[in-house]
Fold this protein.
Amino acid sequence: MKKILVLMLSLISLCYQVEAQSYNILIKGGHVIDPKNNIDDVMDIAIKDGKIAQVAKNIDIKQAAQVVNAKGLYVTPGLIDIHSHNFYGTKPDHQYENGNLALPPDGFTFRNGVTTVVDAGSSGWRTFPAFKAQTIDLSQTRVFAFINIVGEGMRGGYEQNLNDMDSKMSALIARKYKKYIVGFKVAHYEGHEWAPVDRAVEAGRLAGDIPVMVDFGGSTPPLPIEELFMKHLRPGDIFTHCFGQLKSREYIVDLQTQKVKPFVWEARKRGIIFDVGYGGISFAYSQAIPAIKEGFFPNSISTDMHTGSMNDSMKDMLTTMSKFLAMGMDLKSVIRASTLNPAIEIKHEELGNLSVGTEADVAILNVREGKFGLFDYTGYKLEASKKLECELTIRAGKIVYDLNGIVEPLEIPRSSASR
Ligand SMILES: [Zn+2]
């Protein structure tokens, strides 16, 4: 009887092994940081049919067709950048809406470990279908959108048009394209009315309680952000450019006391989300350093990538994340703010983690040691000894970027448009 049992057990285990021998990719020996699953340890990750198949201490390399040598590297969920401008096009003077200030996502994402971007209001309810056809449908990067409360989107001067801010139409389109639209955006309004914010929040309610991202406007004198946080936004709504320090906007750190204003802490308790949205001039160390010192970490780190930020102090997602490391935020918190937190903020909790069964979006990062200068647009520079670099990116189980050829056998990532 005992012999039969042993035989049965070994048969079961043999079947299991045969079944498990078909991993497509095994990431071997990397330090996995997966905040959702509380993993901060050297682990192996196996990928099969585009999904995470196993996360374990030691997975046999014989079980996989390709092995990525991740020794000495960090393995994280694919990064999520929730403030980006990707509605690129050729219309003269249309700026970020089908214009020349926006960028195609794939050129800037995978080399930074980013697998998901959220376009922050470049399109509105009138123009979203064009954005979807031109960008979302043609990108390998997963692209979502906050649609602008302005029907046209971020078409320069059009953003001041109160008559084109329609909660109902915005919500209708958001419901129709639920798979792609994750919320609404308010940006750049210079008037003194609260209507743009209130209408966006109303759209958020009508569309089934999805968030609003606010790039607060340029009213002179500036509208009070305490009122914005406490009276107009809902818990879960997002204040982007949270470390900006512009004359036209109230900022979160009191320059006299060098402390985060008390009501900002209250707003955080209330559930207001603080997002970096670095951009061209929307991040200043004079705000971020005192805040980080006090333990006021951003909920999410994002780039505000566009032609006006791509080559200046911002550069890319990993440079932005490296600045937070340099200011004293620990690596685990930096990764959390670039994976799990943004996924929760946009209500896509299936993303931003490495749970078994989820789509395999993975970033493999190197923390380079050396001498680095990390400066902001004001010219203030931090000397840093560490900088994040992307070694390899996997999107939906496919290697889409490999800096040094660390996969065996080597396969050259090619986009569908390669020729
Ligand atoms: Zn922006």
Remarks:
- The mean pLDDT is 94.
- Residues 83, 85, 120, 215, 279, 304 surround zinc ion (CB under 6 Å).
